[in-house]
Amino acid sequence: MTDLKGFTTPRTPSGRAGLVPPPPWHYVGDFLVVDFHADPDAATSLLPEGLEPFADDPGRCAAVFADWQSYSEGGDELLDPARSQYKEMYIVVNALLDGAPVTYCTFIWVDQDFAMARGWIQGFPKKLGQVWMTRTFNLDTPAAPAIASGSKFGATCHARGREVARARVTLEARSDSGSLHTDPPIVNVRHFPRLAAGHHDDPQVHELVRSRSRDRGVSEIWEGAAELELFDAPGEEHALLAPVSVGRGYRFTFGYTVDDLETVKELG
Fold this sequence. Notes:
With about 270 residues, the protein is mainly beta. About 5% of the residues lie in helices and about 50% in strands. It has a single domain (about 30-185, about 220-260), classed as Acetoacetate decarboxylase-like (Beta Barrel), CATH 2.40.400.10. The longest helix is centred in the middle third of the chain and has 10 residues, at about 115-120.
């Protein structure tokens, strides 16, 4: 019998066809982040078992747009950018895990299949979408806003042809703290259901997990005034978190490596 290889399917004798190569996974990306507050009851309604509301600042959330490039050790993705580049947008809610602050990813859209599958492995509830972000380049030209006071950056996210989110940030100055709403570690729920009759409510995997990363690096962070809109759309529920107030926006570049995940609690 042939020894099939691959971290994910499809598994083959060589393992090269697997949708997601084995870790470690190295990431780097440009970020546009907007801190905001949603209705506290709506934010609490999305928290899974094991998390408690962030009582010190109810409804604290953030919208994150990211333009990523990733690489699997030993792979050649960087020479084939269709397998290394993707963009995504996600919304996090602040919560408490055993009394400690965390962020919980409630909704997320991504534009590449490998990134969606890799996210599911980590517990991110990724769906397909299209994300666009203002770029900057290392050249003084009107077509590329500089990382400087007065520069304007925008981002949009669409799903199934409908716009679901839009953000704008006007940079003002270097940030001393960065986004406080995304500072706590991310926790997710890994949920994989069963299809067998009689077991549809008995998932194969249902666990609360905490993300682990290493070799983290971040550029200088700039902040400024921000705007954020979340739009309702068929089959989407992120508008539950429509902003009741919008805080600061942030622009920076961030990189890290992932090859581990901590199971915090078995939920079922």
